[in-house]
Write a structure and sequence with these properties.
This protein is of the alpha/beta class and 441 residues long. The protein has helices at 2-9, 44-52, 57-61, 81-92, 106-117, 134-146, 162-170, 189-195, 218-230, 295-308, 313-317, 319-325, 328-350, 382-393, 417-433; strands at 64-65, 129-133, 152-157, 173-180, 186-187, 200-206, 234-238, 263-268, 280-286, 355-356, 366-371, 395-396, 398-399, 408-412.
Amino acid sequence: MNVLRRRLLSPFALTRPPPVASGMPLMENAGANHWTEAPLQISIKGILAQMLETLDEADRSRLISLGIGDPTAYSAFRTPHASEDAIEEALRSRKFNGYAPTVGLPQSRRAVAEHLSRNLPYKITPDDVFLTSGCTQAIDVTFMILSRPGANVLIPRPGFPMYELVASIRQVELRHYNLLPERGWEVDLESIKALADENTVALVIINPGNPCGNVYNYQHLKEIAETARDLKNLVVADEVYGHLVFRDTPFVPMGTFASIVPVLTLGSMSKRWLIPGWRLGWFVTTDPSGKFRSLEVMHRLKKYFDLLGGLPTFVQAAVPRIIKETDEAFFKKTVDILRESLDICFSGICDIPCLSCPQKPEGSMTMMAKLDLSMLEDISDDIDFCFKLAKEEAVIILPGIAVGLKDWLRITFAADPSSVAEALRRLKSFCQRHSKPDQQG
């Protein structure tokens, strides 16, 4: 276990962000700590792979993974027939075996623009849309376009570790603002104001939230936009989980406030359409006033997409039909299953004394639970907890430090309700077995 622990902990050292290209010293802001506890050079998939390495064949045969947001691994979540038919039609037509424009097929960009425009007070044009290999590549495009000597970007803690990895490669300094669990994981706007300086170029928000399951209301999003405007920043809106909401707060696209501040919208078809392996994503300039879309910026974007090469042409070609023919019944069924699995997960966590959840998630596919180590023996931290849980119960969840919160757990509930129920039963058994004697009832 010590060897495994060293392997996993090595990327999590409390370190400065990578040096900026200019060699300028990094700002240290008293009272607004931007040292990071999140991994700089490891992804969620990398962490989960290390955990899987500890399991033998018997463990793997009964494994339940609540560690990654890929619902297609479970039978309750099925790709819509419209998507499968659209791919088949594109292939059989023999029209899409050659190269496509690197920014995306015109008809596919138009379909995405029309889809996103339905929820906005203005129309997005096809020229605003750039098709990417999932949202991960959209994050890379974002940092490519924002990078310059000395630049820094504000990102949430807890957050999505891919931002750490991309920023380290792009040599962009990250500063972490807090999300407030006691206020439904709202953005700490005062934290943002304290962190920002003249070299801050953007503020990233993730809504619906990964990993917290929060859904921001209209007023809070407007306050975020106004804060970014006052700081002369733009907003990067990661909306991969857009429209996957379960409770009273509706999903409001950040682009709604693009008249206040320019917004770069990152999204994909992975989660809502249940096709994560197809890698259909987008980078969109939601900027009706044209403050961001200078000729120089757009030229740089197009050149970078020439380097990326574009998505497979037949996959792009399927986009218009997928968007047009996937009906609301499919989306409702997905949300209903997620809601059922969430209810099981949340009630199960509430029944385990050493775990607590500050708020029941309102959207996405993930949630955070706080770990009370004082109630456990033989468990040193969240990493130790997750490795031992995997080995003893064949249940995988993500240590909170992977998303920036030490001694928390990130749990994905995008699984069959029966699988979630069994995973929570095993989790409770594990916690009971490792409880201190005075905590056992």
